């Protein structure tokens, strides 16, 4: 029987807080059960498994992050939109390291709706920003992968103290955005008739 007051949404919210406190990999059903003062088994009335909980957490975090990005890029285009997008991305990743880590997992469509609003909104906003550079498929997908790899790599290294040179980390971030803008403006278009 489900304990009164505990819901799936409340569990996911608590998991998000726990992830930021101790790290995404430390989020377990046992840790959440202790937080709520219940037995582990009682949580299965609200989530199917740890994997289910983590996927729900990934969607929550992805939704929070894209909402912040959407506000930042509203009304902007080109380099201004790119810089705003990148800045909101970095700010979320650094402020919520555990939640941000959850956004890196592959969400299993068998556990959650693959057409979840947060996922759909992320695609719409990201692709919309990149269409401002005149990109279309398959270049859009390639550009998204470049941005995600750059932003994620930078944020992960920064959060882990991986930048030791005396140069200001923010200055390097700004130069990276400048370089990405130039790359997007001069994107090497793939010939649709060219097959590898």
How would you describe this protein?
This protein is mainly alpha-helical and 196 residues long. It has eight helices and no strands. α4 (78-95) packs across α7. The model has no long low-confidence stretch (mean pLDDT 91). The chain is globular, with a radius of gyration of 19 Å. 26% of the residues are buried.
Indicate the topology:
Blueprint: H1 8-22, H2 29-36, H3 50-73, H4 78-95, H5 97-102, H6 117-131, H7 139-159, H8 169-185
Our measurement of the CA-to-CA distance between the termini, rounded to an integer number of angstroms, reads: 56 Å
Q: How many extended strands?
A: 0
> What is Rg?
19 Å
**Shape annotation:** globular
Estimate the strand proportion: under 5%
Order of helices and strands: HHHHHHHH
Largest sheet: none
Structural class: mainly alpha
Overall mean confidence score, pLDDT: 91
Task: Please give the count of helices.
Answer: 8
Sum this structure up briefly.
With 196 residues, the chain is mainly α. The chain has helices at residues 8-22, 29-36, 50-73, 78-95, 97-102, 117-131, 139-159, 169-185.
For this entry, give a set of tags:
mainly alpha, 196 residues
């Amino acid at each position: 029987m489900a304990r009164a007051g505990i819901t799936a949404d409340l569990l996911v919210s608590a998991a998000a807080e726990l992830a930021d406190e101790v790290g995404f990999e430390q989020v377990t059903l046992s840790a959440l059960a202790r937080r709520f003062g219940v037995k582990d088994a009682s949580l299965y009335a609200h989530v199917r498994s740890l994997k289910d909980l983590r996927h729900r957490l990934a969607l929550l975090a992805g939704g929070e992050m894209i909402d912040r990005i959407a506000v930042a890029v509203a009304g902007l285009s080109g380099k201004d939109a790119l810089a705003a997008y990148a800045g909101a991305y970095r700010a979320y990743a650094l402020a919520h390291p555990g939640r941000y880590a959850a956004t890196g997992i592959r969400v299993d469509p068998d556990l959650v709706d693959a057409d979840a609003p947060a996922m759909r909104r992320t695609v719409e906003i990201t692709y919309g920003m990149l269409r401002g550079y005149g990109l279309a498929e398959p270049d859009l997908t390639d550009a998204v992968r470049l941005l995600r790899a750059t932003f994620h790599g930078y944020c992960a290294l920064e959060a882990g103290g991986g930048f030791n040179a005396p140069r200001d980390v923010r200055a390097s971030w700004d130069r990276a955005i400048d370089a990405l803008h130039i790359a997007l403006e001069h994107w090497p278009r793939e010939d649709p008739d060219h097959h590898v």
